[in-house]
Amino acid sequence: MGSGVLRLASRKPKRDLPIKASPVSNVHMSDFMMWTSCHVDLVKEVVAFQYDQFMQSHKHMERYLLEEWQSVEKELLRERSLWGPTAGSRLQRWMLDMTEGPGRMRKKMTKNEMFYIHYPYRPDLEDNPLRYKVAISFDSKEYYENFRPQGILCHEAAPIQHTSDVDLLSSDADQTPSSPEDIINMRKLLPRSTSNKSAGDEEEGEDSSMLDGGAQSGEGSGAEAAGEGNSENPGDMQQEEPAPPSSKSDNQTIMRILGDKEKISHMFRCARIQGLDTAEGLLLFGREHFYIIDGFTLLRTKEIKDIDSLPYEIHDPIIPKSSMGSVGPVKRLFSKFAYDDIREVHKRRYLLQPIAIEVFSGDGRNHLLAFPRKIRNKVFAKFLSVATAITDNAQTSVSGQRQNAKVESGGGLISSLIGEKSVTQRWERGEINNFQYLMHLNTLAGRSYNDLMQYPVFPWIIADYDSPELDFSQPSTFRDLTKPMGAQTPDRLKQFQKRYNEWDDPQGETPPYHYGTHYSSAMIVASYLVRMEPFTSHFLKLQGGHFDLADRMFHSVRENWMSASKHNMADIKELIPEFFYLPDFLLNKNNFDLGCKQSGTQLDDVILPPWAKGDPREFIRLHRQALESDYVSAHLHEWIDLIFGYKQRGPPAVEALNVFHYLFYEGNVDIYSIQDPLKKNATIGFINNFGQIAKQLFKKPHPPKRLSARLLETLPMSAATGIAADQRLFFHHVDNLKPSMQPIKELKTAVGHIIHTDRYVLAVEQNKVLIPSSYGRYLAWGFADLSLRLGFYESEKAIAIFEGLDNGEILCASCPHDKMFVTGGTSCVVRVWEYSAKDRRACLKQPLYGHTEPVTCLTTSPAYNVIVTGSRDRTCIIWDMCRLIYVHQLRGHVAPVAAVCVNELTGDIATCAGTYLHLWTINGEAIASINTATGRNQQILCVAMSQFMEWDAQNVILTGSSDGVVRMWSVEYVQVAEEKETPAASVFESGTTNQSDNKAPSASSSTTTQSLLKRRLSRHESCDSYASEERSAVEHLKDFKDPEFLAVRESELGSSGEQDSPLSQRMKIQEAAEREGRGGVSEYRSGNISTTSSLSDLCGAEDPTWETGSVKSNTASVDTGMDALAVLGEGSPAELESRNKGGNKQGSSQSEPCLSGVSNQSDGGDVRSLSHNGVQAAESAGASAEKSSLGSSGSEHTASSGVVTVPSTKFAEDITAKYRPLGKNTLREGFRWQRQLMFRSKLTMHTAFERKDNKEPAAVTAIAISRDHKTVYVGDGRGRIFNWTVTDQPGRVAADHWMKDEGVESCPVCNVRFNFAERRHHCRNCGKVFCSKCSHYETEIRRLRILKPVRVCQSCYNILRAQQAADALAQAGGRG
Q1: Which residue did the predictor score with more confidence, 831 or 837?
Q2: Backbone φ and ψ of 381, nearest 5°
Q3: Burial bucket for residue 1351 (CB in 10 Å: 0-12, 13-18, 19+)
Q4: Beta strand pairing status for 334-338 and 289-294?
Q5: Are 530 and 523 contacting, i.e. CB atoms less than 8 angstroms apart?
Q6: Which pTM value belongs to this model?
Q7: Which segments within 962-1034 are labelled E, that is strand?
Q8: Phi first, then psi: what are they for 1147, rounded to 5°?
Q9: Phi then psi for 344, rounded to 5 degrees?
Q10: Which residues lie across from 972 on neighbouring strands?
Q11: Beta-bridge partners for 342
Q12: Could you give the CA distance from residue 874 to residue 896 in angstroms, rounded to a whole number?
């Protein structure tokens, strides 16, 4: 109580607050109104600013939604999509995909959606003489006439443009490029550097001082970090300006691209360079990725701005704009790379300035980025700090050596001890081929695909463009690699020497030079690739928007060589890498109007030399083969000295006649020191048009390749392949493979996947696949719970189980690497999964829609970044594994696709459906196809391809079938009759056939109509079925010469050689007459017929028929040659008969049963052979004996030529003169070359059902090839794995065609029973088992590459000796 009273008493009274006067009472009304108005204005401005921001955000959202809808609409309307067409249009255009494959080759094509926007239909110019002012495609009109806008919200504009003459003339007047002479003669245009340091050294020193002031790490996300986290050099930012409301939308765009969780630590302005295009944008470094975004820049206020929204006077571009115009709108790109995918980062020069960096990714993508001055080294250091998987392996590096290795190493002690080798040493030792070495040198010299001004340079190799066949053993076939192109001919060389010796510059600024033009420039590269986008656009930029005069365009390889080596003083150009791997640039697939030459020739596809057989693929293959030949390998170092070596500069260059204008060399040009914009543009134009000398890599003479050891060997060198004959590749010895007598590995069930590593052979059952790159784990599917499982290979213990990944059953899967796997199954959807080993989780990366029935097989190609899937809908689809988008479809299969394979070296794709084998390019173009059926019930179950020396024509495709046979096929060129368009329709337009009717009937047991029909359909079947026929040569001639045999509805699904023929009607009419003219039907077995067009190739030797130990011969009709000539149009059989009265007699012998198949001799007559090659004839007969001895019901297609002989009469001489061998590669009159898949050989031991000595035959379910390509591994349905290897002793060890000893108890000839005293002896030719008496004959077997006499049976001895005699006579006749 007391305390409460005390507090009450001590409380102080409250003070009275003074009354304040109202401010209104002290402020004048006018002031009050003014301030009120100001406040209202401020509020209005804030509201207006917020409204502008809202409208910008609204527009941004509209644009974002529109882009999203466009992508969805595009996916819904594309080919093989939900609402899209089932087949693509032939008017669809493609452009080169910049993604690199093996050896830095760019082969893939991507869809060109801007083609008809860049080249619209111009109706006003159809008959206008000024149409040459504009680039035109002949297909633009047809595309416009059939154009139907497909967009629902995004309406497409019609691809048409009306252009008047005034527009053309005004645009031409605007293009006033400076003359090269004017540029060169500009006084003091490019001051020389007086410092001893190069420009690169100066830039290194300036940049190194700025590395300490690096950018700080950002704490915010998206645009926040862009504004706060980076304090770059002022030169890396734009000029300061107030931030408009649109900056927020720009930031939103960046944030949407990056994602919500991304944090940006560093940001740099950059310019992405692609060809002649430069797209300025931003380089952003995030937490786990870096991004390249076109179309944005960074201001001094650290704000992101869209470049298109900036005024021209404010935006200072990184790369000065040149005078070249743009062909059309440039599409903005956005690229995202994971730090783990960065493989290499290299410093580069651009416009002769050290301002660029080239970044290489593991998936084949790469970017050339230019930066503001003195920023390049900071960015380079940042890349090295964030990249966690930079390649330091010589085998996988784009430069071919370790990062710190020197190209021109002195062979130091430390390097020798640790085994470090430079790329030059690897080439010397033969570890890499010539093409790879040249690509590595170009990379080390700073030459890039991304910069047309510094494009990789390759040498001219061949000097012979007139011969039908190249002879790589003759030095005259090749150009002189010791001299530059200007010194190839003496007359032109004298003029260049005269220019150098008489040079006099009154100003004393330009030193003397030999050549005022360059061997590589943007114009040269674009002119080579002008028929293919995007290089057409680049060429048009250089030409002012139109093509060059037709007489100056690249039209003929031969004319181009003559111009560069002899005729044109201003032309000394070399080649580009595409001449050695890309056939597409030689074809005018875009159907451009390239003009007409003064001679009246309309320019279209590039004219190829005769040895190319009219096929760009063959030209590329032979050109590459020439590059890898021994002659080029022995002299290539001399050309390297000229381009990259010590003869590039100084006195050695003068002596080698290799001095160019001084502006071509680095260090002589500094575009940033030129203030005059006209001079700066002129300088850039000069660099674009005239090129740049490559960086000098060698100061001393380049060492030659070590070939002496190989050349001194006794075995002959294969000049065609550049590989020693003793290398023993299995596809060079397909008839000489030694099988293992026992399985090398056995599994529980059918073999599904075989992998050969450096040390082991790994294999798993079906429904399993091994995971690269260690192959220590496997992926399995096909379980009852529809799960997918990961397990260890050794223990088979599951480490992860994934359930519910697919809506249906998984039927196939593939693993390109350990972080991704692809599945397909009954849901018809291909799903790409991303696997995290840390979390053991699989996340769906992208579903791929396109198939309409279950996906039955799929494969992935890490080298080319593609996924190929096959389905029961009888189609295959190629998907881009990097972008996860649809690319192509492969149509034309007659059955569900059972197996697919991608060649990791060439990119070719093999697909198998039923009994058909199809071969395609990486871009979905058909190469060839064949029916492998043999009359038995068989299906192809697996396929593999040899992947070694892609230029070797003997590379094979191996197919494993349900009949237990492994067959090998190669692509060969055969001659077929030229087609003439006739109004007559096919006889069997609506006919259909049953697979069971594929067997051709005997000629004596069927009517004319049935015979003709079934022979026409026989083009769909395997050549094995021909062995069961007994028909004359004229009938075989019809089979192979009349491509109308499959004129039924399924003709498009058959062989690539099936096309209309003008011979079909004549053959039908003459059918009865030909049968009567033969004078009887003869039994004819042709198991080794090649589908060539020559008469001799269509008439093979007969097979001996074994019956109860005796040999019986089947004599061929002698009149087959006349019948064949009648079919070829040389006259009727009656007329030919009158020309050869009494000249035919048949002969046969029981002791020499096979001679009638080799030669038919008349009394006192000599033998004339029409065979191209005697060795091939020997192969034919030998293979026939082998296959008949094994009891096969049929034999296979081979590339061998049969032998046809004619009696000794004037008619025989006429035929011999007319059809005298013209050489294997000489095209006959009235024929054309065509690619076909030809049978090479087969493997039958252990697994083939056709062999009675195989106790446990089984279907072949898996095939693999060893890395050194010396061994073939075959897995069967019983879980066994056998191998076939090339033997060192052909003819001395067991071969595949040998019968097993345990299956034979007595000699088939004399019936002597085998015992301890009477040993078994194999005939090395046919493989049958005989006693010692019946197999004491010895002879060579050239077909099997047995050059020493070996033991053969009597029948084979007669065959081989007769063939040797026929070969000798043919050679003598050829010399005569």
Answers
A1: 831
A2: -65, -35
A3: buried
A4: antiparallel
A5: no
A6: 0.77
A7: 966-977
A8: -145, 140
A9: -150, 150
A10: 1236
A11: 361
A12: 5
Residue 496 to residues 491, 568, 573, 1117, Cα–Cα distance (Å): 9, 12, 15, 68
Tokens of 117: 């926007």
8 Å CB contact between 1122 and 1133 = yes
| Beta bridge mates, 771 | 777
Contacts of 1231 (CB under 8 A, 6+ apart): 975, 976, 977, 978, 1093
**Token representation of residue 294:** 């076109």
Closest CA to 349 of 650, 694, 607: 694
CA angle 1183, 1184, 1187 (to 5 degrees): 80
Q: What is the DSSP string of 167-197?
A: HHHHHHHH--PPPHHHHHT-TTSSPPP-SSS
Q: Helix %, strand %, coil % for the chain, to 5?
A: 30, 20, 50
Q: How far apart are CA 928 and CA 275, in angstroms?
A: 34
Gap between the Cα atoms of 180 and 172, Å rounded? 19
| Distance from C-alpha of 131 to C-alpha of 254, rounded to nearest angstrom | 43
Written as one letter, the residue type at 309 is S
Q: What integer pLDDT is reported at residue 1361 of this predicted model?
A: 82
Entry field: residues in the chain: 1376
Q: Is the peptide bond before 773 cis (omega within 30 degrees of 0)?
A: yes
- Residue-wise pLDDT for 1027-1040, tens only, equals 333 444 334 334 43
Burial class (CB in 10 A: 0-12, 13-18, 19+), 1181: buried
Residue 656: CB partners within 8 Å, gap ≥ 6? 483, 484, 641, 642, 647
| Beta carbons of 439 and 104 less than 8 angstroms apart | yes
Strand pairing report for 841-849 and 829-836:
antiparallel
Nearest to 773 by CA among 812, 820, 813, 805: 820
Q: Indicate if the pLDDT at residue 713 is higher than 80.
A: no
Mean residue pLDDT across the chain: 74
Torsion of CA 1298, 1303, 1309, 1315, to 10 degrees: 110
How far, in Å, CA of 650 to CA of 658, rounded? 10
Q: Which residue is associated with the tokens 């690096």?
A: 214
- Identify the band that residue 12 occupies on the pLDDT scale cut at 50, 70 and 90: low
What is the C-alpha separation between 369 and 292, in angstroms, rounded? 9
Assess whether the previous peptide bond of 129 is cis (omega < 30° from 0): no
Q: Cα–chain-centroid distance for residue 1153?
A: 49
Rounded distance between C-alpha atoms, residue 1196 and residue 1024, angstroms: 4
96-142: pLDDT as tens digits: 999 999 999 999 999 998 899 889 988 888 777 777 788 889 999 88
Do residues 908 and 945 make contact, with C-beta atoms less than 8 angstroms apart?
Answer: yes
Q: How far is CA 1118 from CA 540, 1015, 1089, 1124, in A?
A: 63, 22, 18, 11
Of the candidates 342, 336, 346, 347, the one whose C-alpha atom is nearest the C-alpha of residue 388 is: 342
Output the six-digit token pair for 1287.
């033997």
The tens digit of pLDDT for each residue in 849-905 reads 999 999 999 999 999 999 999 999 999 999 999 999 999 999 999 999 999 999 999
Asked whether the beta carbons of 1096 and 1222 are under 8 A apart, the reply is no
pLDDT of 737 above 50: yes
DSSP 8-state code for residue 565: I
User: Strands 876-880 and 334-338: what pairing?
Assistant: unpaired
pLDDT at 233: 40
